[in-house]
Amino acid sequence: MKCHETESIMHAYLDDDIDGYPYQEFLEHIKTCHKCKKHFEELKITERLLKQLPMVSTPPDFVQKLMQQLPQKESKTRIKRWLVKYPVVVAASIFLLLFSISLVTYMEQDNELKIVTTDQAKLIVKGNEVIVPEGKKIIGDLIIENGNLKINGEVKGNVTVINGDILMANASQVDGHTKQIDRLYEWIWYNLKNLWTKIPPYFIGG
Question: Where are the transmembrane segments (predicted)?
Fold first, then answer.
């Protein structure tokens, strides 16, 4: 299996639609391809975090109100011809409106510090900074959201920081991988893919 063939399988896995894809062949590939394995793990982390975000749904009368904004003097036949002639323009306009609504909702969310670990009792929290004290070992993965992580001790697992920085003396303090994520960029990527499915099918030729 080639690296470029794995992208569709990764997204099919995240969409719970893996049937029909050579998933076992994909698993064999990522056992030896560090690049694809790392990308797959990043996508899974992003998917897990994004599931915590509220999904924005359009009002039931959204399409009706949109149609009412079209010129009233135009005949229905002419409007229909216009929609058929410029389906991409109409679809893109609706998409941008939906995306803008979602982006405003996202920006209004709180920036509360979130910590995911099985060893939280060993951590010290000062404001938006989480500290692994010297001499302490965190067993398992550690995820920090909306805060900075300072590692003076050790982490026996992977470290992921979303919307924050990782501070440590040397890489040997973490047994696994370290990853910093700008959640806004990942969130935009996710919604660019999913908001398109919210556009009424008759606007995109369905």
Answer: 83-107
